[in-house]
Amino acid sequence: MIPTIRNGLEAASHNLSVVSHNIANAGSNGYKKSRADFYDTYGVGLGSLPGIDLGQGARTDGPRRQHSQGSLKATASELDLAVSGLGMFVTTKADDANPVVFTRDGSMRLEDDGRVVTWDGRSLIDSEGQPIFIPVQRENANGERQLLTAVNISLRGDIRAVYGSEVPNTSTAPSEIVEVGTIALVRFNNVAGLKAIGSGQFVTTEKSGLPNFGTAGEENFGDIQSGNLEMSNINMTDELTKMMQAQQAYSASSRLLQAAVDMSKRLIG
């Protein structure tokens, strides 16, 4: 009896840990919640009848990541990106332990050198497999220096940079639109097999398989919503309900364990 109760304690503790981690990351952009999975265990006891399974409680099967869509939140930045549908952004950093990382967190910024990067300095990749650059200044055909005034990103992920005169109202040259490139997206045959490395970032594993590259709006990929960020897919009401259930299960198992120990002491003593 005691081993069975101990398995129940471990299962409830594991469930509490998974739910607590979900709640702690409820405000993280693009975070995907985990679910605690369990399986029943059985054994063979002395004198047991053939075909009769002896229950030994439940064992944890590791948390399972759920990659369902999170809600979108409008922002004031064109470089805040969200994927509505299937697909993940590709980011790279040559001097990192994980040079290629996949994420749904599209909070990007523009570096001084023109690179479009994530919060931790990883470069966003285009459909040609190259880091995306949006120069903050350029020279037009007349040799005039122009500054970046706006960035427009379509649903397909096409990036267009708008450049205007360095000094307003001193040039007759109109604003120019420059095609920068197209944002790459990837999807996986088994997205649940990806390995989370923290902060909403994932790397491939044997279970996930290799990434399938594409662009928004084609081959079952979703659209890219510029000026939006995808929130976590966590429902706080559901998570708090799961936490109360796990706490009650842990408390009940603790009382059962104490009762089993007291019975054993009386029988032995």
The overall average pLDDT, rounded, is: 87
Q: Give the number of helices.
A: 2
Q: Write the H/E string, N to C.
A: HEEEEEEEEEEEEEEEEEEEEH
Helix content: 10-25%
Low-confidence stretches: none
Using only C-alpha atoms, the radius of gyration works out to 26 Å
Count of distinct structural domains: 2
Report the sheet-strand fraction.
35-45%
Total beta-strand segments = 20
- Gross geometry: elongated
User: What structural class is derived from the secondary structure elements?
Assistant: alpha+beta
Question: Sheet bearing the most strands, described?
Answer: 7 strands, antiparallel
Straight-line N-to-C gap:
18 Å
Keywords:
single chain; 269 residues; alpha+beta; 2 domains; seven-stranded antiparallel sheet; 20 strands; 21% helix
Q: What would you say this structure looks like, in words?
A:
The structure is a single chain. Strands 5, 6, 10, 15, 16, 17 and 18 form a seven-stranded antiparallel sheet that branches. The protein has a four-stranded antiparallel sheet with strand order 11-12-13-14, with no helix packed on it. It has a three-stranded antiparallel sheet with strand order 7-4-19, with no helix packed on it. Helix 1 packs antiparallel against helix 2 (236-268). The protein has two domains: 2-66 and 234-268, no CATH class; 72-230, no CATH class. 26% of the residues are buried. The longest helix has 33 residues, at 236-268. Strand 8 (109-110) and strand 9 (116-117) form a beta hairpin. The two termini are 18 Å apart. With 269 residues, it is α+β, with helices and mostly antiparallel strands. The protein is built from two helices and 20 strands.
